[in-house]
Amino acid sequence: MAKNKFDIQVIMTHGDEDINPMYGDVLPGFTISQLPLINEKINLGKNLRLNIIGDIDVRNIINKSGNFDDSYFPWLVIRGNFYCSKYSKRFPRIVCGTFDCSRLGKDYITKDTFLPATYEINCSFSISDFDVLIDILPDMVETLVVEPRLIKKSVLLKDEEHLKKTLAFIETHPNVTVLDTNGNNLLNILQEIDRDFETKELQKQVEQVQSATQTIQETFEIKIQGKHLDIKEIFAHCRELVEYESLSDDVLERYIRNVLSDQRKNGIQKKMMHRADGVIVVCINAEQLDSVCQDLSNLIQDRTKETIEEKTEEKSIRVQQSVEIKKETKTIKPIEIKKYIKQSQFKEIVKASGENNAYKALSAINEVNLDPLDMQFEGSVHIIKDGKQTVSATVKKESGCCIVQSIDSSNHNDRKRIVWNVSDGPDGLIIVCVGFSEYHDTKKTSDQYVKLRGYALKKQTYTQSDLIGYMNVNDMLKDSKYDGGKSDDTQLPKSDILPQKLGDFLEHQH
Fold this sequence. Notes:
The chain has about 500 residues and is of the alpha/beta class.
C-alpha cells in the first residue's frame, strides 16, 4: 500500500492498558490528512486506539509551522513503516515495520526520547553515539541501522571513547543486530578488530622472542592434541552443553574470550603454543576445562543480572529465577498447558502441508509441557519427554510471548510457520494459535509474518467464552487417532461466534 494511504481499525481495551483488546471492522481507503478529523470524532486514548494498516510518512507533513495535529500519535498502532519528521517527536505506540528516524540530525534522538515498540529502527545520522540508546531502546528491537561512520573500523580504532560506548551497547543489547546503511554488520567489524589486535600482539611477542632466542620453536611448546585446548576446542565443547544452547555462536565465543582474557582474574593459566600447522594459539591444559566452564557460567550470570536490574520489578523477579546457571541438574516437573487453534487456521495448515503433517505439527506443540516464558533467550522450546528434559524439534521461542513452529521439517528449515501466543487461560497457562504463514521469504509475506509475531508479542488473557471459537488440540489428536492411524475423514467443528479477537482479523487478511 502506498505511503499515507491506508486502512484503519479501531481497537478498544478494558481496564488496564492492553488488556482484552476488542477489534472493530477494517475500514479501507483513508489518507493521513483525515487522521486529525478521526481523532476529533472518536477521541483516541489509552482505552481507544487506532490500527493503521499501511505506511505513514510525516517527513513532509509535519513542518516547522506545526499546523498538522499529531497529539494522538501515541495511541496509533502502525501495521507498516513509520517515517519521522524532524519537527516532531510524537511517535506511534507500536510500529510493526521499520521505525525510520534517519537523517534528522545527530541530536534528534537523545536519552530523553521515548521510542515506540518495534522490531527495526533506522536511526542513521540521527544519534550522536550508541550510548544515547542504552536506556531507551525497546526490548523487542532486533535490528538497528546506523550511519557507516559509527561502525567504521578506522573510526573505532582511532576514537577510544567511541569504541567504549560501542562495546557497552553490545554488552547491554547482545541480541540486537547493528547494521550500517550499506549492510555492514558491527559484530563482524568488532571480530575483525579483535583478530587484528591478537595478531599484532602475537607478532610483537614473537619479535621480542626472536630477538632473544632466534627461533619461535625454541620459545613455544608444541600443542598436544587432547592435552591442550585452544579457543576453538573450548567453544566446540561448550556448544554441546545445554546451559549455553540459547546463546548464539558469536555471543558464546565472545564470552569465552572474555574468560580467557588477562583482565579477568580467575586463576586460569594460559600459554602460547605451537599448533601442528605452525599457527601460534592461546591454550589451556585440558584439566582446566571445568574451571573455564564455571567462570563462563559466572560471567553470563553477571551480565544477565546487570540487564535484569534495568527491567521492571515484575520482569526482574521472573528472569532472575530463570537464568540462574547451575551445573547440577535440577528436577523439573512438567505442567499441563492446553493448546487451542481455530478451525479455519487448521484448514490453512492442512491445505499447505497435508493432513498428516498438520496433525504431526499439532502433536509437536501438544508436547510443550514447560512454560516457554521461563526461557531467558530465544531458541528451541524445552519440553519433558519420556521423563527427560529435551528440546522441541519444531517449536521455537521468539521475543516476548511469541513462539513459532515449523511444519514440514525440524530445525526450522522449511518456510512455513505457525505462530502461537503464550497466554493466560481460565485455568492457567495456555497456548493459542495466532495465525499461519505459508511463506516469509518475500517482502509481502515477510511483512505478514512480522505482523503475526507482533500480535503474539504480549501475553493475552482468554476467558472461557473467548475460547468458544477454538478447538482443543489435545481433543483433536484424540479424535483423529493420529498415533494409531490416518485421520483423513476427521470432521472439524464449526465456530458460531463473530470474529472479535486479533486472530479473526488475520483470517480476513488471508
